[in-house]
Amino acid sequence: MYTITSVLQILSAEHYVLADGGLAISELVYDSRKISNVEEGLFFAIKGSRDGHQFISDAYEKGIRSFVISDVDFSTSPYPDANFIWVGDALKAIQALAAFHRMQFTIPVIGITGSNGKTIVKEWLHQLLTSEHNLYQSPKSYNSQLGVALSVWNLRADHTLAIIEAGISRPGEMEALRKMIDPSIGILTNIGTAHMEGFASKSDKLDEKWKLFKNTPQILFPSSYVPDTENIYNGFTWGTKESDDFQILNISTEHTETKITARYQQENLDFVIPFQDKASIENVITCIVVMIQLGYDFTIIQERIKGLKPLEMRLQLKRGKNNCSIIDDTYSNDLASLQIALDFLNQQNQHTQKSLILSGFVDAQSTDKIMDKLIHLLNNQLLKRVVLIDRSLFGIITAINSEVLCYESTAELIADLSRINFNNETILIKGARKFHLEEVSQLLVEKSHDTVMEINLKAIESNLMRYRSLLQKDVKLMAMVKAFSYGSGSFEVANVLQFNKLDYLTVAFVDEGVELRKAGVTLPIMVLSPHEGTFGDILSYHLEPEIYSKRILNAFLQFLADRQIKDYPIHIKLDTGMHRLGFMKNELDDALTTLQKSPQVKVVSVFSHLVASADTAQKEFTAHQIQEFKRLAGALESVLEYPVLKHICNTTGIVNWPDAQMDMVRLGIGLYGIDLSDNGLHLEPVSAVKTTISQIKQLNAAETVGYDRKGVLKRDSHIATVKIGYADGYDRRLGNGIGKMMIAGQIVPTIGNVCMDMCMLDITDIIANEGDEVIVFPDLIQTAKDIGTIPYELLVGISSRVKRVYFYE
Ligand SMILES: *Cc1c(COP(=O)(O)O)cnc(C)c1O
Q1: Which of 184, 438, 530, 708 has the least C-beta neighbours within 10 A?
Q2: How many domains is the chain partitioned into structurally?
Q3: Based on the domain organization, do 618 and 742 belong to the same domain?
Q4: Which atom of ligand 1 lies closest to the CA of 667?
């Protein structure tokens, strides 16, 4: 139990103001939008992509009374009843507090690092060890400098074993994580090329990761990833070498199973696992050696390994029946992951009504203290309805402010499901794996056409952060969500952007803006191509038009004058070379004279569009555009006599022309994970179109495939038919081997002409089965090049009948 005074001592801070030194502290808060326990919250003003100091007042308004800050001086404090502790760096302070907390425990703490597989190994160990242990695992991907601090903070006295993940991307980052985790057992999963950015070589990366194990007595790792350098990398190794402590003798795969034969202490052991892919096999072996280290009997290890379940651990957003949205998170349940899921629910504004279906927690987590926290968490959410499954939760019923329904089991809920009137709302389904709430989710979700476009909302968020980090000080950010957010879906994406406090959204047409408003988006929205017939909607939905010509200016002014409206926000578009929409320089004077005597409008921004910001051969032209824009925008500002936001950069402009970021930038394609600047930005892929194999045929050489007999076979072949055609947006030019798809990691060409709803693939060189998943565009940028177009066209061309499935991981 900590108080603000004990925190003060732990941080050895010298400068502080305490209004109430006895205030209890149980929750560490770094984001004023994510607070579950206001009374016992301690806010850290961390300087990340945003400066946390900006959100002190927001946190204060929500009820937080304790703050760790670094640079604001409140000598005349506007917050007389709050506690303030000044430190050099709030991130270091939260880490110091976590490290102190860690020292209070003597239980085994497993620290896990590596390039891939960390989360899976962590989850599997949870499945494997949960019958003996009250196991704590760091939630989802809380593995960063801040994430680890928050994870470690959640360690409690009743845990008997902890698994904490450490992720680094740059040299020098591990030491801080080591101090917080201080593992007694260390696991290295592997070393890959992922996240290579900050490192000169693979061995540099290994050295950095190894720092996690500085004081760790037991270190487990696969020898194949670690060079044989005597005395540097010591520990328990597994691999195919005779010198390995756990030596793999044979791996054989058949159907859906893999048999692993290994030698350990002169004994041969067999393990059968329900997976075949290399990554899973590697991860399972890591789990086996951990269990050996923890002293488990081989028969128990064998039995439990056999029953491992693959993880569908992505929180998914799906379209439900009766115009509902379903957030499906049915593989784990504890307070931390519930909080993440509730944050996500909160950020989805497409429906005002929200419901939660919640299972019991896993064993030993239903203490009174946890139940109190749960009540607090739920009552903070404005939920319309809470559906509880399992007796362990029944104690909280009377304390919940929303309508509550309760069931003893999932089966009981299913039997009653048709009587609950889920309608026009967002439903979060959150439950531990053993409750099988996926069965409930299946019943509530609208049946899908088999071809889907998966959109990773978390990746959009990361890409946003990436570009934010490239912005100069105080530059505002406008996101382009035109054309259904480049094909990714409007309100789902807009909600994420709004949650991340963007400054502006931009759509192409008024209809798109209206749809966003109806879904609850409140950010300012600019409309690129307004026309007279839509002025009514512009007003009713508070949209802000781009004014690009004398004609549209006069029409809009007249429209506003007729309604006696003043100061309506507009954006003036200048044409500096694109020659699409916008005032030419010789038209500007005239427009300014009009604006000067038109109180109906207020010019919020003036902007222009770069023609070739990605093309280095056009540098001179771009420089000229920027210069011309600055001159014209300056003229406009001096005539209007008030400040106006100036902006010209699109995605590649932000990167290639940083000095032209001015007051705001307009981020488009980069947000959706496509980097056309050749700058190695390491964006995260956002969307993936996936389909499945409907049928496989064995055909002889000289037969043909598809319309017009274009697919001529030169050898005996295996041909797979997949459910995507040109009506779905799979361009007909991709037929006859131009298009490539991916099945189980292997690339296969199309054969024959693309049909309207289907096309065929030549899978002769690989092993595949009917029903297998197919990735339609393994390399979007290359595919676009192959048919002489750009990724933008392929993305927005995916037709609306391809269902968008959202997830956030
Ligand atoms: C689409 C668009 C952008 C964004 O362009 P990207 O290349 O996708 O970043 C910026 N400004 C205007 C006016 C646009 O139409």
Answers
A1: 708
A2: 5
A3: no
A4: 9
Q: What is the pTM of this model?
A: 0.70
Q: What is the C-alpha separation between 140 and 137, in angstroms, rounded?
A: 9
Assess if residue 100 is contained within a domain.
no
Tell me the C-alpha to C-alpha distance, in Å, between residue 304 and each of 117, 124, 248, 272, 558.
19, 10, 19, 10, 75
Between the CA of 596 and the centroid of ligand 1 the distance, in Å, is 29
Asked whether 480 lines ligand 1 (CB < 6 A), one says: yes
| Nearest CA among 36, 43, 79, 78 for reference residue 59 | 43
Is 785 tagged catalytic?
no
Same domain, 338 and 429: yes
Ligand 1 near 666 CB (within 6 A): yes
**Domain span holding position 617:** 455-672
Domain co-membership, 368 together with 294: no
Statement to judge: residues 161 and 297 lie in one domain: yes
Whole-angstrom distance, CA of residue 467 vs CA of residue 670 = 8
| Residue 580 annotated as lining a ligand binding site | yes
3-class secondary-structure state, position 444? helix
* 603 and 711 in a common domain: no
Concerning whether 541 is annotated as a catalytic residue, the answer is no
Report whether residue 673 contacts ligand 1, using a CB cutoff of 6 Å.
Answer: no
pLDDT along the chain (809 residues), means of 10: 95 92 93 82 89 90 93 71 93 97 96 87 90 87 90 93 91 95 94 66 88 94 83 88 94 83 94 82 94 94 87 73 90 79 82 93 72 90 93 92 94 94 94 89 79 90 91 94 87 88 94 91 95 95 97 97 96 97 96 96 97 93 97 95 95 95 96 84 90 94 95 96 96 97 92 97 92 91 94 92 82
Distance CA 50, CA 4 (A): 25
Q: Yes or no: say if 117 and 189 are a contact pair by the CB < 8 Å rule.
A: yes
The CA distance from 523 to 499, in Å, is 10
Of 414, 447, 480, which marks where a domain is finished? 447
Atom of ligand 1 nearest to the CA of 607: 13
The answer to whether residues 423 and 523 belong to one domain is: no
Domain contains 558: yes
Q: Looking at the CA of residue 614, tell me the nearest atom of ligand 1.
A: 7
